[in-house]
Amino acid sequence: MEVIVVPAALDVGMAAAGIISRLVAGKPGAVLGLATGASVKRVYAELALAHHDRALDFSRVTAFLLDEYVGLSRSHPASFHAFIEEHFLRRVNADRRRVHLPPTEGDDLPGLCEQFERDIRATGGIDLQLLGIGRDGHLGFNEPTSSLASRTRIKTLTSATREANRSGFGGEEVPLHAVTMGIGTLLEARHCLLVADGSAKADAVARMVEGPLTAMVPASALQMHPHATVIVDEAAAAELSLRDYYREVQRNKPEWQR
Ligand code: GLP
């Protein structure tokens, strides 16, 4: 796992967007896995800048959204669809026909989840999966004790996750269920890029990077991934015992590895 420590949240967004921009510039038909949340907002803001200032072309990019609430209309302001539309899709020249949303309605949701997995495979697989991390170490909506081999499916959210995601729901109840790509699905992406900032994420980041591999910290599954990059600001890196080592690795990174 490559750990990149940068000074502040703004730098996290810039560094992650730089990696995605280079991928899309070199492979205009890239397949991206997209996440939602405060941490990834800045990444999308930087990508929108790259589109406007440097004409970075997203028209051939295929995208799969990581997760979504069950039963919530796609136009609901708190839906992840609304988030990705507002913060990314409408700010770049995305082709909506190439954007795949996890199924959240229908009589046969498990069957539709399997179809979502087939759709990912049919594109040749995800080139880069962008991720945030929950305070409890969840990835997507893979809550603690999620199978590390799980596929796209329905999960029941913990009360802590529902509380953390309350904004946007007003007085309404946060849905109890969500559909999320599984840990097994995420591990098949060719590159996993996780971003985190702020002291509230420091414990989860340390357990993901340096703790034991365990379903209690779903993000620790990234230790098994052959190409995982974690970009964190100083506050989110505060509990990493090897953070000086990670800095040294970055300072001495050979040119061919950049
Ligand atoms: C939600 C999403 C996750 C995201 C997490 C952290 O639970 N399902 O994909 O990583 O929130 O979000 P934030 O960046 O807002 O802290």
Please, could you describe this protein's structure?
The chain has a seven-stranded parallel sheet, sandwiched between helices. The chain has a three-stranded antiparallel sheet with strand order 4-8-7. It has a single domain (2-257), classed as Rossmann fold, CATH 3.40.50. The chain is globular, with a radius of gyration of 17 Å. The chain contains nine helices and ten strands. By secondary structure, it is an alpha/beta fold. Helix 1 crosses helix 2. The chain has helices at residues 9-26, 38-54, 80-87, 109-122, 159-164, 183-187, 202-210, 234-237, 243-251, and strands at 2-6, 31-34, 62-65, 67-69, 99-100, 128-131, 153-156, 177-180, 191-196, 228-233. The longest helix has 18 residues, at 9-26. The chain binds 2-amino-2-deoxy-6-O-phosphono-alpha-D-glucopyranose. 2-amino-2-deoxy-6-O-phosphono-alpha-D-glucopyranose binds at residues 35-39, 66-67, 132-134, 140-141, 161, 165.
